[in-house]
Predict the structure.
Amino acid sequence: MLPMRNYPHSIRRAFYAILLCLYLAIPASARAAQTSIVYEGKDGPGKGKHVVFLSGDEEYRSEEGLPMLAKILSQRHGFKCTVLFALDPDGTINPDNTKSLPGAEALDSADAVVMLLRFRAWPDDQMKHFVDAYERGVPIIGLRTATHSFNTSGTYQSYNEFGKKVLGERWVNHWGNHKSEATLGIIESAAKEDAVMHGVTDVFGTTDVY
């Protein structure tokens, strides 16, 4: 095939016109930069229900784990699942960007919310979608650092206490010198003969937390 520059100008114009028509035929929603993952539900007990997953933490890779869970719920149990991410302006997923939740309007149709967040400071216009979902009674499942999901100074600053007032806990700090100590486990004498302890002679963790 000849390089495009070797064709007559009229043919090149016609070719580019066809490409433009094909591009415009694509729905605008499909042409737009993708800011979320949507798994349409197959058959199952969750058919017709929408679960929204909120990722955004710097430690536990919620941006990797939540899409896996969402896909399982959609393919095996029938739920439509949408996963939202913290994004940089160029569309890169960046959990360190605490002020980003594009596509938050998906929460407006949520039948349930699964959140694994840590110290988010979303703009008020994005945070409002979450608040509206909470206030209309949407069931919420908080995983791990959801106990301290928010750290905002905006209109919704009171939601910094969401973990304590709604989830029942706002544990934030680690005992001792976090990231510089280790953990020694002691096997209780009453349990050392239990089947699950066979072969276990020592419990030692290289982190202070676990």
Summary: The first strand starts at residue 36 and ends at 39. Residues 1-32 form one domain.
